[in-house]
Amino acid sequence: MADAGLPTGWEVRHSNSKNLPYFFNGASKESRWEPPEGTDVEKLKAYMAQNTRKPEGKIRAAHLLVKHKDSRRPSSWKEQNITRTKEEAIDILKGHEQRIRSGEISLGDLAQTESDCSSAKKHGDLGPFGKGEMQKEFEEVAFGLEPGQVSNVVETASGVHLIERYLAGTDDPFVCCLPDC
User: d(Cα 50, Cα 158) in Å, to the nearest integer?
Assistant: First the structure.
């Protein structure tokens, strides 16, 4: 079996009822959705990319949305009346993009406080979706990303986004493996 980067005694299992990976320690009989402390994240990402089941025709992604005054609905859970220009929204998003690419913070962690989408409370997680379920510009970029890859700025009628495609079409275990988090 390939090295999943987990501490001794831990293994990756798959929940058939939730259709998600989880982590199990055979000695203690502990199971959990989040990787255990001491996990080699890079090895686990590679393992998950090779071994996680993909829902047929669907992918899973998270995003960070910054709305502007010309967005289809220029309000959010953070701000009742959004007045920033599209250019200001893009500048804000590019600042977020720099922080993500530098490794300072993950897209999911940043989305919790900075995204104008209600998915912020779920680390920006949009759940599984297939073609034809999202705005065309968003969908084209999301389906074109490799698992674990973060997009450049994407413009839609909703505003401007950064999109992260999750590993193997399921939850990214490094953001959150809980189906309802």
Answer: 34
Place of tokens 């189906």: 179
Q: Return phi, psi of residue 81, to 5°.
A: -130, 105
C-alpha to C-alpha distance for 39 and 10, rounded to whole angstroms: 9
Taking all residues of the chain, what is their mean pLDDT, rounded to a whole number?
Answer: 85
* pLDDT at res. 14: 76
- 14 flagged as catalytic: no
Neighbouring residues of 44: CB distance < 8 A, sequence distance ≥ 6: 4, 5, 6, 12, 35, 173, 174
Catalytic: 123?
Answer: no
- Among this protein's residues, is 161 annotated catalytic? yes
Q: Which of 68, 96, 123, 161 is catalytic?
A: 161
What are the backbone dihedrals phi and psi of residue 56, each rounded to the nearest 5 degrees, phi first?
-60, 120
Confidence of residue 140 (pLDDT cuts 50, 70, 90): very high
